[in-house]
């Protein structure tokens, strides 16, 4: 299937999503907001891959929201009744845009972001919803919304404050300044910095292969526990993981992992099952 904003390949248990509008700095046009969740949910629900990598093309990872598209969404309306609905209609639009990035967090498999050049505005919403972030030495991130008179509303604030110190996050949000890759690594926003895009992709794909070789059921449980622990108390998290393992722990997978390690061979693990569609009410 072809897409307007992405090139998608799946090989060796790794789904690679590439933003492919470099001439437009991979700005997020309306198609972006429907394509990304559809691609992620297809990969996840149909168990097509064990890891997802998101990278980009051209000089910048993404310039963020396409302003012209935003103007068309928020444009005026001569109908007085439509004007009264404008606030609620805008909220519905923002909610759908938020869901576009929340699907990365909700996906059962890890999502890795490989960032080159600028990661601007909506790009920060995207990468903070990923499990891990890696960058080129010339990369930078900026919460750009303040520079155009906006408050970031698609996911940056609920996530970045849990990734880096609050004072640093507030400074980025209030000033709209660029945070270079070296600083982003120092505060823990990115895991590792690579000299250039070629080495970035080589390194991130190597990490993805390492994850893909682990038991998918255990990786899913680990991501689920990590997300839960981030958002809940220690006591609640301990209780939840105990209940989870009581029902989900697979002794056959543990034995296979231990034997594969001892024999220094790839493990033969069960893949995640496809997600069953919701039951339909009988007509």
UniProtKB/TrEMBL annotation:
Source superkingdom: Bacteria
UniProt keyword list: Fatty acid metabolism, Isomerase, Lipid metabolism
Molecular function via GO: isomerase activity
SUPFAM superfamilies xref list: ClpP/crotonase
Any GO BP: fatty acid beta-oxidation
Region Disordered, residue ranges: 259-283
KW Isomerase (keyword) present: yes
Signal peptide per UniProt: none
Compositional bias ranges of the Pro residues kind: 274-283
Entry similarity comment: Belongs to the enoyl-CoA hydratase/isomerase family.
The protein, known as: Enoyl-CoA hydratase
């Amino acid at each position: 299937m072809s897409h307007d904003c992405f090139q998608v390949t799946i090989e060796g248990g790794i789904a690679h999503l590439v933003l492919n509008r470099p001439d437009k700095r991979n700005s997020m046009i309306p198609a972006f907001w429907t394509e990304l969740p559809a691609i992620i949910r297809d990969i996840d629900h149909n168990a097509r891959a064990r890891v997802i990598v998101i990278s980009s093309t051209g000089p910048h990872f993404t310039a963020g929201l396409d302003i012209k598209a935003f103007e068309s969404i928020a444009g005026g309306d001569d109908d007085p009744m439509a004007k009264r609905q404008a606030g609620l209609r805008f909220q519905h639009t923002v909610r759908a845009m938020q869901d576009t990035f929340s699907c990365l967090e909700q996906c059962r498999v890890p999502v890795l972001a490989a960032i080159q050049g600028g990661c601007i505005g909506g790009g920060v919403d995207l990468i903070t919803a990923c499990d891990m972030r890696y960058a080129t030495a010339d990369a930078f991130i900026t919460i750009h919304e303040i520079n155009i008179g906006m408050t970031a509303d698609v996911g940056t604030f609920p996530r970045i404050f849990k990734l880096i110190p609050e004072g640093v996050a507030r400074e980025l949000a209030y000033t709209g300044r660029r945070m270079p890759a070296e600083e982003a690594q120092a505060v823990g926003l990115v895991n590792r910095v690579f000299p250039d895009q070629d080495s970035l992709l080589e390194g991130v794909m190597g990490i993805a292969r390492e994850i893909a070789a682990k038991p998918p059921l255990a990786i899913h449980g680990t991501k689920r526990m990590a997300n839960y622990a981030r958002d809940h108390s220690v006591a609640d998290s301990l209780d939840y993981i105990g209940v989870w393992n009581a029902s989900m722990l697979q002794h056959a997978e543990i034995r296979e992992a231990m034997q594969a390690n001892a024999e220094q061979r790839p493990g033969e693990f069960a893949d995640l099952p496809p997600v069953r569609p919701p039951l339909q009410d009988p007509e």
